[in-house]
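Quick illustration, no need to memorize.
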Amino acid sequence: MLVKVYGASVQGLSAIPVTIEVNAARGIKFYLVGLPDNAVRESHERIVAAVENSGFRFPSKQFVINMAPADIRKEGAGFDLPLAVGILATDGKVKPDKLPHAMLLGELSLDGSLQPVKGALPVAIKAREMGYQHLIVPEQNVREAAVVNQLKVYGANHIRQVIQFLNDEGDLQPTEIDTRAEFYAQQAHFDFDFADVKGQEQVKRALEVAAAGGHNVIMIGPPGSGKSMMAKRLPSILPPLSLGESLETTQIHSVAGKLGRDSSLIAQRPFRAPHHTISQIALVGGGTNPQPGEVSLAHNGVLFCDELPEFSRSVLEVLRQPLEDRQITISRAKYSITYPCSFMFVASMNPCPCGYYNHPTKACVCTPGQIHRYLHKISGPLLDRIDLQIEITPLSFEEMSRTAPGESSAVIRERVIRARRIQEQRYSDEKGIHCNAQMTSRLLREYASLDGPCTEMLRTAMTRLQLSARAYDRILRVARTIADLAGSVHIGQEHVAEAIGYRNLDRSSWGE
C-alpha cells in the first residue's frame, strides 16, 4: 500500500515542500531514502517508541519511504510527525481523506508528545502558497505559524491529537490570531528608556541623529561612562517596525530557532550584542546546517559590538561587506544562501588599553605606542562605514546626583519618526534607499549640496583638523540628517558644524 504525506524542509529563509511517500509491503525492514540527514535517519527509533507508547501497534511490515524531491537534503527532526502518520496510514490507523490537504511538521518524543521545531513560519507561508488547507505543528509553534492568514493552523501536544483530527475525531481547533492588534499593542513597550540616563546630553543627541538617519555609530570613552547603557536604549527611539519588516524579521528568527514559546510576530526592532569571542561563522551565518548569523538576526534592528578592539581582526573584517550591501551570501560546496542583514551598527570601545586616555581626573598609564596599536586594531575600511564617532566623558558628581529624569525615549522617538518620514518621501522613487545613511554619491550631490559659506566652513574644518578624505561624505550625510531633524530643506552652517563634531577619530591628533 502506498500513502503520501506532506511536509517541508527549510533552506535559507524559505521552505521547500517535501512529499513523503510511504510504501508498505511484506517483510520487516525499514528503508528511508531521499537524502535524509542523521536526525531524519534516527527518526525510526523515535517513531516506533512514540507509536507504541501512544496506544498503537507499530505495523510489522517492510517500509520503503521516499522523501521527494530526492536531490535536496532533508534536515532536522521536523519530519517525525509526517513519517509516523504515513506509516500508520498504511496500516489503516489514519484515514487518507485529509492527507492531500494537510502539511505536517513536528518532532516526536518517545512518549508521543510533540516538540517544537525551527522554521514554522516559513513552512506556514509555503503551505498557504501551495494551497494546503491545514497545517499541523507543535503547540509551542502554533502562534508563530498562525500569523499567516488564509490557512488553518492547528497546534497539537501529542500525536494522538493529530491522528484523531485526521480521522475526524477529537476537538482540535485552528488557532486564530488578530495579528495587527497584537503587533501594534506591543510596539510601544520597552524595557529600557532614555529617561533613565542622567546627563550625557551630547551623546543622546548624537544617538538621536544616528537613529533619524540610520547611521552607524561608534562611542569611545572610559569604563563606566554609560556606553553600553545608552546603546541598549537605542531601539526605543528607532521608528516602529512595519508589518512587512516584522514578518521578515520574524522569519529569520524562526529559521534560527530564536523565537520563544508562544511567540508570534516580532513587534520591536531586534538588538543583538554578540560577545567579542564570536567566530566569523556565528557572526555572518553558515555552518554545516546553514543558519543565520548575528548580522541577520539584527536585520531591521541594531548590532551592538561592545569593546570593539577586543574582537578578532578577522571577525571585524567580515562585517565590511554586509555593512555595504545589507545582505550576506554564504557560499559553500553544497549550498549557496543569501540572508538579509540591513542593520544599524553600533560599537563602543575604550580609548586605550587601560581605559583612561583623555580622562579628566584619572591618569592614563599607557604609552603612546600602546594607544596607537590599540586604536589601530580597527581597520580604516571598517571605520569608513561608521558615520558618527562620539567621544564620551564620565559624569561629574553633580550630574550623577540629579534626581530629575531625562528626556524620555517616546519624545525623542517622535522627532526621529518625523525625520524618517521626510527621508521616505525624498527617496520614494529610489529603489533600496530608505534613509540618509544609504545615500549614493549621486544622491549626495542632489540632496546634500552645500552653499558657499557651508562649503568654506567644511574646507576650513578639514584643513585645520586634518580630517581624512573618507570623512567628507560622512559629514554630508550626517548634516543632511541634522537638517531633517530641524525640518530644514537646505543644509545650514549649524548643521555642518554639528556633523563635523561627530568625526573625533578622524582627527590626525587623536591618540597622539
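The CA atoms of residues 356 and 462 lie 27 Å apart.
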